[in-house]
Each structure stands twice: as C-alpha cells, then as structure tokens.
Amino acid sequence: MKMQSLVKGHLVMSLLVSDELTFDTDVKLAYDPVDPLAIRLTFHLPGDPPVSWVFGRELLLDGITRPSGEGDVRVWPVAGLDEDFMDVCIELRSTEGAAVLRSPAVPLISFLGRTDRALPMGQEHTTADLDRELEAILGR
C-alpha cells in the first residue's frame, strides 16, 4: 500500500484590516491524508501567537471559482491585481473577531493539486474504510 505523505505549502497572503489597510503575512498550509477532508491554515500576526484554522479541502477548492462556505469559514474569488489572474479571499470568523486573507489563486491551486496527488479528491472515504478494514484484519 502506498504511504501517503503530509503536503505542506508556504505563501504570503494579504491580511485585509480595512478598505485602506492591508499587510502581508506568512501563511502555512498543511494537508495530512490521515485527516483526508481537512486543510490546516496557520498564520502569525506580529506580537501574537500563531493562529491555526482547520477547514474542508473541498471548501477551498470550491471557493476558488465561486463563493463557498457558511459560518466560520468562507472562501470566494475576486478579481486579481493582474487582470489575467484571480485572487481568492478566505474569511475566518470567531467569537474574538474576523480576519480576511487574500491570495492569488495560482499558489492555492498548486497546493490543492499536490493534495490531490497525495490522496485524490473523492477517494477520502474509500481510503479511510480500507484502513479500518486492514486494522480489523490485522487485529489492531
């Protein structure tokens, strides 16, 4: 059986503070086939500890082409600074406030492509079921 590996990505996204104020922040993306439906996004604001959010891989994929998500995480496409490319906004909401991160779509698409090579979309449940069956057969 092929060993599935952790997929990591690093990019710089704009944190939209207001209509007039944005600043760049380093963002780490991670996908672990052990948790096949989720993506972890971590960013660090100056003076604060790192902030991590976990949300659906499919939500990120859908949000690249159309507004997606309800509740705490929403993702939607916007016109990019370069008219030939799209950007993607990711809104994260909690009881402590909200943050909107903006990134060109291309690095997000590249990251999702690498997650798909680690575990193709649509096969997440099949793999989890196979792992459970193997554990049962092996008596674990």
Written overview of the protein:
25% of the residues lie in helices and 40% in strands. By secondary structure, the chain is α+β, with helices and mostly antiparallel strands. The protein has a single domain (7-137), classed as Roll (Transcriptional Co-activator pc4, Chain A), CATH 2.30.31.20. It has a seven-stranded antiparallel β-sheet, sandwiched between helices. The longest helix has 14 residues, at 105-118. The relative contact order is 0.17.
Q: What is the beta-strand fraction?
A: 35-45%
* Share in helix: 25-40%
Q: What is the radius of gyration?
A: 17 Å
Question: What is the annotated CATH architecture?
Answer: Roll
Total number of domains: 1
Under CATH, the topology is which?
Transcriptional Co-activator pc4, Chain A
Low-confidence stretches: none
So what's the CATH class? Answer: Mainly Beta
CATH homologous superfamily - what is it? Sporulation-specific cell division protein SsgB
Number of strands: 7
What's the overall average pLDDT, rounded? 87
Helical run tally? 3
What's the SSE pattern?
EEEEHEEEHH
> The biggest beta sheet, please?
7 strands, antiparallel
User: Between the first and last Cα atoms, what is the distance in angstroms?
Assistant: 17 Å
Class by SSE composition: alpha+beta
Shape: globular
Q: Strands across the major sheet, in which order?
A: 4-3-2-1-7-6-5
